[in-house]
Amino acid sequence: MQTKIKTILAIFTLFISVTSCDDYLDLRPQDGIIREEFWKTKEDIQAAVIGIYSSLLNSPPGVADLSMSQYLFMHGELRGDMIAPGPNVTEDQRDIMNSNIMASNDLTSWAIFYRTINYCNTVIDLAPAVLEKDPTLTQVQLNHYLSEALAIRAYLYFTLARTFKDVPLKLTATLTDKDNFQLPVTPQKDVFAQVIKDLKLAEGYAVESYGDIASDKGRITVYSINAMLADVYLWNDNFQEAFDAADKIVKSGKFDLIEASNNIWFNTVFAKGNSIESIFEFQYTKTNLGPFYNFLTFRPQFLASATVSEDVFGVDFENPANKDIRGDRTAFVAGTNEIYKYVGSDNDSRKELQDADTHWFVYRYADVLLLQAEALAELNRGTEALAIIDYVRLKHDAIDQTAESIGTDNKKEVIDYILAERSRELAFEGKRWFDMLRNARRNNYERLDILTDAALLSAPPEQQQSIVTKLKDPNSHYLPINTYELYTNKKLVQNPFYK
Amino acid sequence: MKRLLRLPSLLRFTLVFLIALVFQNCTEQKIKESTDETLNITDFLRDEPEFSMFLEMLEITNYAPFMNTYGTYTLFLPTNEAVKEYLKDAGVSSLKDVPLADLQNIVKLHILNQTINTTDFTDGKIATPSLYGQFLVTGATNKNGTSSTTVNKQSSILKSNVKVGNGVIHVIDKVLRVADKTLAQTIEQDTNLSLFTEALKVTGWYDALNKPIDYTKNDIDSYLTVLAQTNDAFKAAGINNIEELKAKYSHLHNPLDVKDSLNLFVSYRILPKLQYLADIAISPALVTKAPLEVISAKLDKDVILLNEEVFNGVLEKGVAITREKSDVTASNGVLHFAAANFAIKKRLPAPVYFDFCDQNEFRQLTSVFRIPGAAPKTSLAKALFKDVTWDDNDPITYFKDPAKGGTVGFGWHGDCLEINRFRNGNCQNITFTTPVIIKGKYKLWISYRGQDTKVGLVKVFVDGVEMSRQINMLENGNKFSSIEERVLESQGYKRHIEPSSSKMNCRLVGTVDIATTGRHKLTLQSQSSFSAQAWFDVAEFRPVDMDQLYPKFNSGTSGFAPIK
Fold first, then answer.
1. B298 & B381 share domain
2. What's the pTM?
3. A342: which of A292, A396, A453, B234 fits an S-S bond (Cβ 3.0–4.6 Å)?
């Protein structure tokens, strides 16, 4: 009996010990894929790259912050002179509009930018190794993917440096908790230099076309990279380079301005998007809606400012039918001052909430043309710059009331005209503040008056003097580093203006 | 001992256990009693050696324990460097040598008993006075390309919005100084104002401007504002000395007579109340000490222009205020400089929009007044109000709702004045002092939130004279929603906000002839025993020849709706 029990026990023990070292001791997440199992085929790289674009549209599940396009809208417009607080404006938004900014302001969080930057870094770091594992992946294909990651990362750093001035520059993926998160800031000019370097590299890798319109307008191509390059060169005062980059787009023959016409033009360019005027857009769809309907129409946080109708687009008091097609019922609705660009279906009717899939327009052809005009003006080629402005105005039905006849050799006036035309053409596309700041800061803040004049118009009268005085400090043109970031990263130093 | 050992084992065990317990119990258990480690002001100062001298000031004046109690304070905290500089100015070697009263005043000047963040600063005074009684002025300055926020013009803020348990601290680089000179002394001291000083003296206004304010009473109304003009400004107008001034203006040859034009010339430059430039920039008309006369003020870009107006289609150029020199705080008021000579002007009636909630007492509730998302209702007692009086003793309430939402969020600024029980015995005959109304004929519109039951008729009086129509608070806007606006206007109703809401209604109560330029009394009288709250939004005095519908007010926020 005893031996029998012992035998059974022995067999059982043997059985256990042989089988025991199996899966259930090996802990893997049940709802995700770990790195060792990913990064094996070219499809994995594609999935990761599409994931980058996806993070530009809306935040990943479980993260409850605003979407990237809403941040881009606010960083570009809040401090400009074209929007006014709407009924649902938050205190944080209002404080930024009134240059009353503190580091505790939630809108100064840059988390969303660095999240997507990390996605880009991951692709840049890990994708090249796939070349060895997947024989069907060619170096050319890999380069295409890399160009997308590099360009988006560059654009985000470009936006960060325009918004915060000096920011930490992290160019490697954050893969484990052991990574060093304590990074000091990199000066703005070095960030711009890195952006240019990345974009140049990406340009060499990038495709001209993916073969379908949605990808050509929604993913990075040679042209979107050149649009970014033209923009960042202007910030860096490399005017010839900016002109050349813009010229590559113009010379490609793939883009054009559509003759403005009632309803059709708006519907094609804005409501549907991906038109021949478009270079790079965030591709919202009916199943992945943008934030605009919510914060511009449903619970309006912002309105067009009271001066937009008359001062920006001009009003023909003798003939109301003669109007700038880009103004009333395109950019905004006169009377209620609702911002309309992102919620209209055409000039007369609105989209429904569930259909409000209007894209976010990162670069449009008119934008690039006007950037080129700015480069020309700075290169003292005013006649050519004015020709570009006239071309845009002709195609897009600007009215005579906003036409300016100026001396072509007067650089200041040409630049002012370009700025005014940009404010009409690119109203509420997140460009205004950056346009003003870029031109104001040139030549050691030679044109600070652009910023102070705008503030005089839009500031509340009882705070006007303080706001204008604050704007005389260049550091005040950039947002502070959020308190939370300073708390977690001891190497960061706050912008001295926000003491 | 033996007996002890003989005890049953259970008992022995218990004994050992008890002994063990006794020894164990002697270690004190540490329980964390506080839920919050944030230091209060005094403790915060004790931790920071760079502010030791201000701490010493608190201790000498015996305010240290007081600043460690819970509350909502704002402290402007000078660094040690700043205090040392102050000592050097005062010519003493240590804080103990400064007279105690002086030190107390200085410390009190640095403390407000409301928490004010820098986001609430304007170009003018902080809404809450310092504990000393004097108001502090904020602004901004740019030195060598770096801008910083300033307090009382001289002190720059080095570090702002430091949160402590009982308020907020702003670190400043210079000690704030108590303004100890009166307006008269300040003016006399300035050699550029010698002619103006002489004018003050011959007209007898010098003594009025030399009267100190009693800070122990919260007496904002006895502050004065002076618009002085320099000798150069006089010279530009062809006046070189007091004789020429007298010759030009004094038509009764007795400047001491208040009817004499020279006396009026001076009194026209003296404004009641403490009005910094930021206040002037937002007030369309300024009352003066000259009877029935007002100065109009207008902000053109960044220049404040006095008396610039279009009269009979002709633009009359205004006189600018010299910004850099102005905003000089004196112990009993503030001094500004007008850039040129200006004279009394005939005024035309101009519309006055009087938001019932726009009372100083409500404005001082900085965390509530017109703040979206703040506590919706705040009631204040009768005794607190200066410009509102009523019979019986119920308080009145400031009621703010989210813009275009809730109950009263549809009104102008998204707020209404609430009278909880508008009836005899609770609150009756409520009388408001209006802003300045220029003499002339006006139509008076009163807007309110209508309700279906429990309220009733309200009579309206201006300066005690009953208006021709009553307000029926049972009338909602929705009863007239289909009627065209101009038709509605002819029936004495209108939609006063844009976008309009059926919840609000606006009633023309009659035409009123305002005989004198100045502030007037507007009385509301309930005609029945209201058992629900009454909510009032705006009283509009519109000149009879003005469009009575436009401009409309923005629903939920400030300002006017763009005209469609």
1. no
2. 0.77
3. A292
